[in-house]
C-alpha cells in the first residue's frame, strides 16, 4: 500500500497495462463511456458505422440524468476531477497502491486517464494509508478492514434501496420501474438521517463486540471444556462457540410457485424473525443465504435457547413453512465476519437430517447441556454423516424455563 509514487518504469507501466486490460469484460462500457472492445479488424467490423444517428434524449431522460448528477454530487461531496495517477500522487503512493485500496472497497478498475475521483476520495482513502504510516496497522490488515467496509456497505446499500422500492410498490401501488425513479426523488431527504444512524449503529455494534470480548466471554471460557475431552477435530481452533443453522423446509419447491414479490416477502419475514430471535437471545447473526440462517453464541445454553425459539416461532407462523434447526457446541475460526471449521460443517449436516420443526444436536452438545434441567435430549438412531462418519444426533426439547420472550409475546 505504501509503494513509492509512480516512477513510470517500464515494469510498472507493463503492470498497469496488464491490470487495466482485465478490468472489465470486453464490450462493456468503462466509466468514461468508451467501449473496451478489442481494436482488431474483427471488432471494427461489428461496430456500428461512425455515421450512425445518435438518439436524441427526450426531455424526461434529460431531467432524469440531471437529477442523478445532482444526487451524485451530493453523495460524493465534490466533482470528479482526478485520475488514478493524480489521486495517488496526492496521497503520496503509487497508482498500484491506490488501485488496491479502491478494489478493496469493492469498486472496479478504471482507465488511467478517466477523471473518476474526487478530493473526498483522496481524504477517505488516505485515512487507511496514514494508519499504516503511523504503525497502527500493517498493509494486509488495512486492506482487510477496507474490504470489510466495502462488502458490508455494498450489501447494506442494496438492501436499503430495495426496501425503499418495496415500500413504494406496496403503499403507493407503483410499478417497479416507477417506484425506483420515485426513490431517487426521495433519497435526498433520507441521506443525512440514514448516515447518522449508520454512524451510531457502528459505534453501538463495536461497543457490543467489546462486551463480548470482555464481560460475556467469561461465561464462554467457563463453558469451553464442557462435554469435551480434547480429542475433537476442532480442538486446535481458538474460539468456543455454539453454532446454529435454521433452514426453511421445501423452500426450493415453494419458490417456484411464488411470485417475485411473495418470494421476497417470505425471505424478508424469515430473516427478520431469525434476526430478532438471535439478537434477543444474545447471539450473533453470521449470515443469511436465502432460506438459511447461520448464527453463533458464546455458551451452549444461549445456542440452545436460540435454536428452540427459531423452531417454535417459525412453526407457529402462518406464512412461513417450518424450519429444520441444529446447534453444535464446538470451536471455530472467525475470519472476515464469517466462521469456519468442523463445528460449522457438522451443524450444517445435522440441519439436513432434522425433521421439520425440530432441533438436532450432536453428542458433545448433548453432554454439555445435560446438567441443565431446562433441556431434554432424546437420542436418535446413529447416522452416517459425510466427513464425520457415524454420528448419534439428539433431538433437543425444552423441559423447563420460559425460553426467549419476543416483543409482544
Can you summarize this structure?
With 409 residues, the chain is α+β, with helices and mostly antiparallel strands. It is built from 14 helices and 10 strands.
Layout of strands and helices, then pairs:
Blueprint: H1 10-21, H2 41-46, H3 59-76, H4 84-91, H5 95-104, H6 119-133, H7 139-172, H8 176-213, H9 217-223, E1 239-248, H10 251-257, H11 260-280, E2 284-289, E3 292-297, H12 300-315, E4 323-335, E5 338-340, H13 342-353, E6 359-361, H14 363-369, E7 375-379, E8 383-385, E9 389-391, E10 394-398
Parallel strand pairs: 4-6
Antiparallel strand pairs: 1-3, 1-4, 2-3, 4-5, 6-10, 7-10, 8-9
Helix pairs in contact: 3-8, 4-5, 4-6, 5-7, 6-7, 7-8, 11-12
What portion of residues belong to β-strands?
5-15%
Beta strand count: 10
Distance between the termini: 52 Å
Helix content: 40-55%
What is the SS-derived class? alpha+beta
Oligomer: single chain
Rg over CA atoms: 26 Å
Count of DSSP-assigned helices = 14
Instruction: Please outline the major beta sheet.
Output: 8 strands, mixed
Question: What order do the SSEs take from the amino end to the carboxyl end, as H and E?
Answer: HHHHHHHHHEHHEEHEEHEHEEEE
Inertia-based shape:
globular
Q: Which spans of ≥5 residues are poorly predicted at pLDDT below 50?
A: 9-52
Q: What is the averaged pLDDT score?
A: 81
